[in-house]
Amino acid sequence: MRVLRLERSAKLVAEISRRGAADTARVEPAVRKIVNDVRRRGDKALRRYAVKFDGLAADDSLLVSPEEMKAAWMSADDSFKEALKAAAKNIRQFAKWQLPRSWSRTAGDGVRLGQMVWPIDSVGCYVPGGRYPLPSTVLMTVIPAQVAGVERIVVVSPKPARETLAAAHFLGISEMYRIGGAQAIGALAYGTETLDAVAKIVGPGNIFVTTAKKLVAFDCGIDMLAGPTEALIVSDKGNAEFIAADLVAQAEHDPETLALFLTSSAELAKTVNREATAQAAKNPIARKALATRGYIFVARDIAQAIEAANQIAAEHLTVDEELLDSVTSAGSVFVGDYSAQAFGDYASGPNHVLPTGGLARVRGGLSVMDYLKVITVQQVSRSGLKRLAPIALTMAKAEGLVAHGKSVSVRCDHA
Questions:
Q1: Residues 6+ apart with CB under 8 A from 321
Q2: pLDDT class for 23, splitting at 50, 70, 90?
Q3: Which of 82, 315, 321, 322 is catalytic?
Q4: Is residue 169 flagged as an active site residue?
Q5: 193 given a catalytic annotation
Q6: Is 105 exposed, middle or buried (0-12, 13-18, 19+ CB in 10 A)?
Q7: Span 22-45, mean pLDDT?
Q8: Alpha carbon distance 167, 130 (integer Å)
Q9: What secondary structure letter does DSSP report for 6?
């Protein structure tokens, strides 16, 4: 990692802040071709790409059978099953706490306002199957959908590992496909002979998945465009070994991981750098990430450090407890020495599908709200008409929308 003075690094911090979710332009032509091919030719194209990119055998079914998922669960270690159950319990409880409610209330004489909360009818949950199996992503994408009440939940994963299949069985998934990449996104968005289209696609993926989500976003709902993992820690007094461990842990996801530590303590900066180097020594992916996108910034004071952290708006942010109220932009926040960022990846309850590339300035992580529609309701009586009509008529006249005004005045004539 490079140790730099924050005051002398304004240009670099600004560049990091403008990083964007992912460099989709370089793969967009290839991804567009795949998505359009799946849209036109359905299963034939989907299977062709699954064989080419996902290692699907010629005689493999695209659909994973319930028996295969059950067999994976039965063969899983008891310790894994217990961990899965405990993590699922925490994720489900957190999603329930997040649920918005329908409501209706009087808003003055003759006017009643409210909202109805309904689930979307179907969702496609993308679970990566590349460098590491991610059964945790099955939990993070499926459980909020179940809490929201989504009727049809589809899981897709290329070369799904036994643990991924086991997690799907545990959650009662009946529709799972062994497909991935841009071809899976195309199939979820537009449907094929085997796979009916879904209303929304959620879940993380590589640059091809992210680009495909971007291309289908006007035809199918998506959660967000996510890029490489990001870890940011702001501390003046934290445990250097713990700080380094979190940086290395997130860095092992991807050699493109952004790993940052901001502090006003030059001594802590040096210690964290030594620790991170030592801990990453036998982890080639983490070592590469820290060497290419790992920075330690020494700030004038902690206020300057937290200001830079809010500007960067990282996916994972760890802060000392007294700094929490100063955080305005982050995907998920971890407070204090013992809040390992890995707890958010697996077990504490909040979702691990989080905004990257600065998107945390405008939204948080995946939540139960991503699976819901909030529909506003308004009911106006005769007395309410008399109160609202002058406002609406004046606004319609100002905007030159004659028919808008007429739709109000015609009611006034009969009230």
A1: 335, 336
A2: confident
A3: 315
A4: no
A5: no
A6: exposed
A7: 95
A8: 17
A9: G
